[in-house]
Amino acid sequence: MRDLRFRHAARTTTLGTAALIAALSLTACQSGSTEPAGGSGDPAAQAPAAGTSAAPVADTGTETTGKPGTTDSGSGDGKDSGSSAVRPAAKPAAEPADSSGKGGTGTSPATCTGADTKLTITSVPRPVNHMLLTVTNTGSTSCSAYSYPFLRFGEAQSVPQVVEDSVPQSVVVLAPGESAYTGVMTSSADGSGTGGYSAKDLTVGFQGRDGGSAGPMVNVPLGKKVYVDSTLAVTYWQTDMDDALMY
Fold this sequence. Notes:
By secondary structure, the protein is of the alpha+beta class. Helices cover 16% and strands 25% of the residues. The chain has a domain at 110-244: Immunoglobulin-like. The chain has helices at residues 2-33, 43-46, 241-244, and strands at 110-111, 117-124, 130-137, 143-153, 161-162, 172-174, 179-185, 197-199, 202-207, 213-219, 226-228, 233-234. Strand 9 and strand 10 form a beta hairpin. The radius of gyration is 55 Å and the shape is globular.
């Protein structure tokens, strides 16, 4: 009876041992056939490449340029990576100097005066009661004829009024040998003028840039007596005689 119980216990132990061995064998088989996610069962294929970190790289949303330390956002090692990095603005070119070499607007021509010009006055058939005053540059350099001339017929105490509508678009500049013109209305055609008198002398003065007198008055021969009254008027200097006689 005791031998029967012993054999039964031994058999139970043998079956338990066999079941344990089978379970261990099955676990070993399953472990050897299962591959990690995203790779092969070959350990060499799963190992990280030399010189790189095995840790996963976070997705920053920035596309790399393929060069170390650079991205298409302009960051990196400072070398040209073909990216859209901001570069310093180019230095503006220096402004060229003017022809005078002084960096300004240059020197304006001298003011025309009696010292470097010749003045003549002539009567014209049209318009009636008009004369044409001509100034010619007799100097060797250009000069500027500013505004209008100061005229004094005979012993007049004041200069004639000016025709404001005759203002030129720019100052009249005369090169050597060139001329400018002023129209002179000596008296009214309808007899409406007052204080008329006959003058046998004429003196002409030039204006400077500031409107003051430039040089002394110049005597201009009339050739004959000229009748003038309160409507006496002159135009601004013009480059064309027709423009001077249209007022």
